[in-house]
Write a structure and sequence with these properties.
Structural class: alpha+beta
Helix content: 25-40%
Number of helices: 12
Oligomer: single chain
Distance between the termini: 157 Å
Number of strands: 26
Amino acid sequence: MANDKKPVPGFSGAASKALETAFAAEPDIDTGPPEPAPDPPGPETPSGGSAPRKRSRWWLWLLLALVIIAAAGVGVTSWQYQSRFFPHTQLCGLDVSSLPLAEAETLLADAAEPVTVTLRETGGTEIAAIPLTAFVSRDDLNAAAEAAFDRQHREAGVFQWLTGQEYRFDPALCGKWKTSGLLDLLRETLYGTSPRVHPRDAYIQFSETGYTLVPEEEGNLVELRSCADALSAVLAGVSDLTVREIAAEGENLRILPKITADDRRLQRRCEVMDAYLATPVALDFQNGNVYTLTPEDIWSVSDVTMTHTSVKCSPDPERTADLAARLAGEYGDDGVYAKFRNVVPTRELIYYRVGDKGWIMDRAALGAEIAGLLADGKGGTAVPTYDYTWYWEGYYNCGDTFVEISIDNQYMWYFLNGKLLVETPVVTGNLSTGGTDVTRRGFFRIYYMVTDVFLTGPTWHDHVDYWMPFDGGIGLHDSSWRDEYGGDIYITDGSHGCINTPLEAIGTIYNNIWDGVPVIVY
């Protein structure tokens, strides 16, 4: 009777089945008395018969030994895999097949070290590059590896590694981060070692020579909560350590200037000013000299008023008159060449230069014409007009009302209708400056008269009660800062070119003079 087939104790189902198959080839074993021993070999059986042959069972024992060895190897390997990951196992994208848990933990830590989380505007500027290790610690990585290891061995049988099954574990590595923690991390990363720089809008800056469009400054401020939300969204899905960069993107993460240099309103204002400064204005002095105003000239005589939406440019009459007078002195042919017959009989005739023309340019009218050409924006050519009324009795005389100034004597006289009204010591331009502050000699006329005004220059801003310019920015005025006049003061402590006059004397002149009165300096 055949034995019942039961698994061989101590072997897996597969090993037991192999042993059963081997023994099934043998007949069932009889439990009766043993067969008698065969007779010793005798003489060869005659033809027509055969002697019985002895059966050999050695191969069965060999097969049994091989099965036992294989089963033992499987058992030992299965025992080893109790402390290792199974073959064909991936953890966070990394191959951890057959690795002990400790080696897998080290592999994860090494792979996380170079990974960077980059925060940037969508398709735009990078805001910060933060190491992944700032979001996931070594303890976090170890915990992820341990959880995967435990799950694999909990769900698989002892011999599950034999099946060749593939395992993939993708745990969320940074899922613990909350918004408050991300906000603190961003503050430290973006502002921890550098000051917060606020964005600044582009603007138009004025100077003495023109304007400059100052571009915007972006600064380094961000919308921290929006940045934290962008990081939170991407960190929740971080599980692959084979990448080198993890991109966190969002819209309007940076706090940027509201007005940039290419803003249409700014550009429009610049265009208006450029067009005004390019107004073609020329001065034809009728002596071969033609001067075209530069943008710097136009800017120096103009007022510019700017609002948030517009800009307005307009010439200032007084500054335009000063510019006209200066240009007339440089390029014109008029009173500077005249000669003067003194109305005081005791003083001789004074000649300025040879080749005098006998006319005086109307500088005030020239300034007004320049202002008109700038105001309408069309430009044109200004031609000076000349006054011949001072030409008298064959001599180039100034009439009987005039201001006479002697630089050598540091003295001034004012004749009104042929009578001396005021005479006073004065202080003229400083000789020690090498010529920059010297009072020019020549034949001039009073441009205009104002009171209570500040005279401003590169190094001064002085208040005067009376101001009467006659040669560009040079004129008659009081000088409250002086206690003495006349003598040699002007050699080392002179004026910037003006005629410094005692207050009482200049007040009398101001109240008895008018625009256009000649001023003779010699």
